Amino acid sequence: MGYLTRRLVTFPLVLIGVSILVFVAIRLVPGDSITAMLGTEAGLLTPQQRVALTAYFGLDQNWLVQYWHWLLGLFRGDLGISVAYGKPVLDVILDRFPLTLELAFLSMIIALAVGLPAGVFAATHNGRPSDLAVRIFAMIGQSTPSFVVGLLIIYVLSVGFGALPTMGEFSPFWQDPLRNLSQLIFPAITLGLAFAASVTRISRSAMLDVLSDDYVRTARSKGAPARSVIWRHALPNALIPVVTLSGMEFGYLLGGAVLVEKIYALPGLGRVVLDAILQRDYALLQGSVLFIAFNFMVVNLLVDLAYSALDPRIRLGER
Amino acid sequence: MSPFLSVRDLRVGFGRDPEINPVVRGVSFDVAAGETLAIVGESGSGKSVTVLSINRLVDFGGGRIVSGSIKLTRADNSILDLTAATELQLTKVRGAEIGMIFQEPMTSLNPVLSIGSQIEESFRLHRGLTGKQAHAAAKDALDRVRIPDALRRLNYYPNQLSGGMLQRVMIATALACNSRLLIADEPTTALDVTVQAQIMALLAELKRETGMSMIFITHDIGLVAGIADRVMVMQNGLAVEQGELNQILDRPQHPYTQHLLHAVPHFASGQAARTDGKRSSEAAPAVPALRVDGLTVRFPVTSGIFRRPAGAVHAVEGVDFDLMPGETLAIVGESGSGKSTTARAILGLTKSTRGTFSAITQETSARRSQRPVQMVFQNPYASLNPRLSVESILAEPVIAAGGRLDGRTRERMSMLIERVGLPINSLDRYPHEFSGGQRQRLCIARALMLNPAVVVLDEAVSALDVSVQAKVLELLVDLQREFNLAYLFISHDMAVVERIAHRIAVMYAGQIVEIGRAAAVLANPQHSYTQRLIAAVPTVSRRKEHFELDTRQVPSLVRRLGFEPGPADWTHFGADHKARAEAPTHLQTAG
Fold first, then answer.
1. Chain B residue numbers touching A310 (CB-CB < 8 A)
2. Which of A221, A228, A232, A314 to mutate to test binding with chain B, by most B CBs within 10 Å of its CB?
3. What value of ipTM does the predicted structure carry?
4. What kind of architecture, by CATH, is found in domain B1-91+215-264?
5. Is the Cβ pair A224, B125 closer than 8 Å?
6. Which tens digit of pLDDT belongs to each residue from B405-426?
7. Which CATH number fits domain B287-371+486-590: 3.90.190.20, 1.20.140.10, 3.40.50.300, 3.40.190.10?
8. Chain B residue with Cα closest to A221
9. What is the tens place of the pLDDT at every residue in A29-84?
10. Contacts of B170 in chain A (CB under 8 A)
11. Which helix (H) or strand (E) holds B24?
């Protein structure tokens, strides 16, 4: 398949571009990782100690050499050592990634399960009070920041039910599914609500467009009942923008959700990136951004493949 | 015997208060079993709304039947008033007893479902067929509309078939369950003339085979003559006249019917061609306004990861012609023949692969602008920027050519606005305030702002109603005489071409196959394609004619790399009329 091959060829090129960008950007920020790592104790370092530490992390070489070493390491699957966590970068990322991936999945499922039916419902009731109600909810959902929703959920849970979302040590799904879900369900709802609101709005407008298309009229002229007109004839044609949006949001969520992770005390990827920036942890930042960019590109590729599955007019081979 | 379908005093309105401003204002008609009723009228006359009310699809477009009755005799001889039917009853009538086909076959089929599954749907809905049975029934339905290789085509998606094929699929779907009434809403308007003739032939044959009734909507009275038993003429939501076909066509009573019949350009096999051509007269100018020599446009076809060129689409191949000032050359041919690509190449909108064209300004450059070729497009609704005032629209070409919006420009604007027959206060207004015909006048004024030598008119009157069309054609002829303009007039409508062209070039598969004086080409076509094209033109005089079904298709224009066609071999017929000699394999037979 020509398209896929071409995409796979561009993959590493984009990743190298991203890595160069991050590499340069973090080094342009004032401050150094040794000072950031040691905090106030950095003042106690003798110049010799500082030089030794800098050399230990390889930060004394010029940028080109540093980048080259990092690139070589990359090919061996070695992303370097995190100054902030004191562990190999890859370990830090892989520790956090399952949670972020699961959270993103749950949010997307919630968003599609709520948003798609709501959008279709609003479109088929266009102009009626029920449509207006859905649109108002969607507007509110989209414009409320996630931390507000998160805090509200915690407030309602604690004041209304005297309970808190399960916090503490994160348990992966394969170890304790029940505890895992009880930890993630509320964060997922928090992230999923805004996501659902976007899905609602975009599926409503796409459905409205499609419902006035000629082939929908044809379907009706054949005697197809309303249910079949909406779900069989109209919806598949309205899915392209929904898939685009969902892919994009999902891709962002794979980069972590700092605020929600913070509120629910979850060890996700978002906080790793934040820590890496705050602590000038060059290796960690480079590694995690590269990882996130890679995921984003995989998601985009899947979205493109989904297009061709949804619409026979989109032939990926010929363009 | 009571009629099969009886519509009485139908009134239909739209919007919040449909009774205030009805679009259909009291229409009554009957359709007997096996009869074809043609409804004729211009856009906005309410003809589509009338038929959409019969199967109540009008409900989904925001319309409401205000009063009246539509009584349908069902298969079991019970009578159902469709205006009072429930949605559940209606879904049993639609598709099963009333089938419908639409104007745009390209958009009327669902792009994400295969042809087969869309036909099968009718059988599933009304016959309860599933799986293999439905599949077999769908194949039979495609066979019935004479689609070659039906079994394979079932798996095709709509984008893989041509417009004519898709309209056949639509017909197959509409008639899948042996509907006794077929509503055809301008079913051939979007198709080429030769394809139109085939669809009309198919409809006539199916009617004979099944004995179905048909309501046929059209704005083309020429088509009516070919298929209808009875005709109803609509204007402003009223049926102004109805009766037997011959009575309406030969002895129209209502002034509007007379006007319609008069306004329609009747194709007269070259007898109505213009005689004011410059070529024949003694004082023929020696210098053409436009000379095209060996124009070739090819689009590369690539394959593989590295996009190696694998061949080329030979869209336009070695086209030569010249165009004198004050002369109209019409380029006719069907979609895909390369006529629009030729025009686009001359304007520089498409890059030509080879060949030269030069627009020669024989007058001093002070009078003729540096941009001697201007264009008027087909769709006046889409070719004017809705956010610009008429003044800005007219100033655009001047500014683009490096001029300024000064007193002289404004003077020319006012002159042209008046000249194309628009009110002088039009300059401050916006395109949406104008009707389709007025917009096309605006486009013409815009094209004339730079005082061009050549105006390319690409299907410039095709989107207009017949009476508007006639007036715009008149205007074009007047302007041509006044400004000594050369027109390159691209059209598929032979009757229109006959009225405006001095010379005609017939394009087929990217090449000119016949060119010459309009009267000669139309009266005495030499190339087999020209003959087919002219035979396909519906005329009022040919009544109930039997069209031959023809499944020939335009040959593929994709050629392998480095392919060069042989030199053209022309046969001359008279002073200004020649046709390309035909190779035996030139017209391929498909299936």
1. 112
2. A221
3. 0.78
4. 3-Layer(aba) Sandwich (3.40)
5. yes
6. 888 899 999 999 999 988 888 8
7. 3.40.50.300
8. B94
9. 777 777 776 766 767 778 888 888 778 777 777 888 888 888 888 888 888 888 78
10. 218
11. strand B24-31
